[in-house]
Q: What sequence folds into this?
């Protein structure tokens, strides 16, 4: 049993946690064993358990250098592990790509920072100072006597990439929800480009997007951007067909766009409240195929070379596509990248200090390209979720396959590095959904009686290093969505690396349930009233979300009454918060007055990033998503009532007031 306990620890299987009730919960050996079994480990095989313990613990001391070594840019200290009997030898460190002289040092002169005894032999960890090195990944060769080793040296910055220390303001939007000028039923990159230009005119600094990940074109109603086909690829439905170069002078497209069916579709979608993904997918992919045919037949030599260059640059990611026609799918990725890049370029040229902020979902679907191509990195039957809370006493199972924390390190974390790099391409910021996942995740799995679960820990130091390195290489700020129960060490590490936290006003309360004062928000944070998982403010204030849950039979009448009473208390607390900010309103005040008073009050906060939901400017009452629902409510489909141009025109003075507060 002692060997199994050691393996639990070495494999990152959690031992305990504190429940939302304050209860201290210790995971049973049965539960922890189930987690190991999901990693393909036979916990009844003592020989296998012993072998894994040696592999995960002793073997790292038997290597001269690990596969990858993390050093800090400011003070590079390189760790070498040797048999104590080699202490009198010299060590030669050579930089394989960098034009730097070799380092030749006597091991006895180096500081010892740790030791380990295995089979009666003592091994030492020695620290060797290195010269200042550029941020990034480099290969280093180490020679001691007849022993050689190569490591990938990760040079990390002190802080993640920063744009400015000034306060900044921006919008958050669900791209698909924008009113589509082309009439094809879903917000696209041209609509985003228009929004960028309007936002820049109003001196906003960024636009925070929903995840733009690839979904399932064969199953268009699978609309959740947080359960994607692949997080390293873009959703082609966001391509604006009329902005594609292959749309110009394309007779086949011109004929198709005059088809009676598509004309009727355009008319129908002008007033539609929800997206019909099946119809959108049908019409847009029909146009995509005509665009691709036009490119193949009439594309210039220059453009075909540009496409070939794109495919070469993104070859590893494109190769993961599970499609019948890889070249056509790659063409769509090319068009999506071109249009996203144009939005970011225009944003920066228009004076926006950050531009677009992308969003990275916490996981991928278990039948998608990302999972199928990297299946060896994932567990067999463990899924990402959340522990029990007041809204889900049995916990939540999000149905996303859990990554094996040991396998994740394969090929020097190549999978995670490529994933972060792909999501930082052509944007100025990246929000990491459920950022505590780089430290620990709640795994769900079924035992013979009921759903079970526990926390499993990940190689935090390495994943954090990837975020900070890639942020500098891509000049991209990083925001960690840290809502919920976040381990203190995660919050401290994120703050130390100047990664922005993500606060929601609804949840920022003291021990008595009162909303925290404006001054309490951290400067290194992104503050917003609401996000995609909670109702927009107009719906929240009027209790529309509660009525909606009742209408969809998600709660019964007694629960509705109870939650309405709790909401009345919340509204009173909000009014007290506003009173402390010098704004006198009452329950009968127009909701637009309450919203503007709240927003202007929060604009005074120290938070360097302050985000306004376009949904709230549009005075939406319907949520885009109700957590815990799938087919019950049309999640990820609700569109805005007005065009972004109309929304900006109506709120011109309000936005000017916010800007005045944030810049003074």
A:
């Amino acid at each position: 049993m002692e060997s199994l306990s050691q393996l639990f620890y070495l494999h990152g299987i959690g031992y305990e946690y504190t429940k939302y009730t304050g209860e201290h919960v210790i995971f049973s050996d049965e539960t922890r064993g189930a987690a190991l079994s999901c990693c393909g480990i036979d916990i009844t095989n003592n020989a296998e358990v012993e072998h894994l313990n040696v592999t995960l613990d002793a073997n790292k001391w038997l290597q001269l250098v690990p596969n990858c070594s993390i050093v800090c840019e400011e003070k590079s200290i390189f760790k070498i592990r040797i048999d104590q009997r080699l202490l009198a030898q010299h060590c030669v460190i050579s930089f394989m790509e960098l034009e730097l002289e070799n380092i030749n040092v006597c091991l006895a002169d180096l500081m010892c920072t740790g030791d380990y005894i295995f089979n009666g032999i003592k091994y030492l960890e020695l620290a060797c100072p290195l010269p200042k090195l550029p941020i990034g990944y480099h290969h280093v060769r180490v020679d001691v006597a007849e022993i050689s080793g190569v490591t990938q040296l990760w040079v990390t910055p002190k802080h993640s990439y920063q744009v400015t220390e000034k306060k900044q303001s921006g919008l958050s939007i669900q791209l698909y929800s924008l009113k589509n000028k082309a009439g094809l039923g879903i917000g696209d990159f041209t609509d985003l480009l228009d929004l960028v230009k309007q936002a820049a005119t109003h001196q906003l600094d960024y636009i925070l997007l929903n995840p733009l990940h690839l979904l399932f074109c064969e199953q268009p109603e699978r609309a959740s951007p947080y359960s994607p086909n692949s997080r390293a690829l873009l959703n082609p439905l966001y391509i604006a067909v009329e902005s594609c170069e292959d749309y110009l002078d394309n007779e086949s497209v011109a004929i198709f766009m005059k088809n009676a069916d598509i004309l009727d579709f355009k008319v129908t979608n002008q007033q539609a409240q929800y997206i019909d993904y099946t119809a959108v997918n049908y019409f847009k992919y029909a146009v995509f195929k005509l665009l691709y045919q036009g490119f193949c037949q009439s594309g210039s030599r220059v453009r075909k070379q540009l496409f070939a260059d794109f495919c070469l640059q993104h070859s590893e990611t494109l190769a993961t596509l599970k499609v019948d026609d890889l070249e056509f799918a790659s063409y769509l990725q090319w068009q999506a990248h071109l249009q996203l890049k144009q939005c970011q370029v225009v944003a920066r040229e228009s004076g926006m200090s950050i531009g677009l902020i992308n969003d990275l979902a916490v996981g991928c679907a278990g039948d998608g390209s990302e999972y199928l191509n990297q299946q060896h990195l994932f567990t067999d039957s463990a899924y990402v979720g959340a522990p029990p809370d007041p809204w889900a006493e049995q916990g939540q199972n999000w149905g996303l396959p859990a990554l094996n924390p040991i396998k994740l390190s394969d090929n020097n974390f190549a999978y995670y590095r490529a994933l972060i790099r792909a999501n930082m391409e052509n944007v100025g910021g990246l929000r990491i959904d459920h950022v505590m996942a780089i430290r620990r995740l709640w795994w769900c799995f079924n035992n013979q009686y009921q759903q079970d679960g526990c926390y499993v820990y990940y190689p935090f130091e390495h994943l954090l290093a990837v975020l900070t390195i890639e942020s500098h290489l891509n000049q991209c700020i990083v925001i960690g969505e840290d809502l919920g129960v976040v381990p203190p060490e995660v919050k401290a590490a994120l703050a130390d690396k100047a990664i922005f936290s993500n606060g929601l006003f609804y949840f920022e309360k003291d021990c008595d349930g009162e909303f925290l004062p404006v001054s309490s928000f951290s400067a290194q944070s992104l503050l917003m009233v609401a996000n995609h998982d909670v109702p927009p403010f107009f719906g929240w204030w009027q209790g529309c979300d509660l009525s909606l849950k009742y209408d969809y039979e998600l709660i019964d009448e007694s629960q509705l009454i109870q939650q309405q009473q709790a909401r009345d208390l919340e509204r009173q607390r909000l009014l007290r918060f506003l009173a402390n900010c010098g704004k006198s309103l009452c329950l009968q005040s127009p909701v637009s007055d309450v919203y503007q008073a709240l927003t202007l009050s929060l604009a005074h906060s120290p938070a360097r990033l302050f985000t306004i939901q376009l949904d709230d400017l549009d005075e939406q009452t319907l949520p885009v998503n109700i957590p815990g629902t799938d087919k019950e409510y049309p999640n990820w489909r609700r569109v805005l009532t007005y065009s972004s141009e109309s929304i900006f025109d109506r709120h011109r003075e309000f936005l000017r007031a916010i800007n005045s507060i944030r810049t003074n």
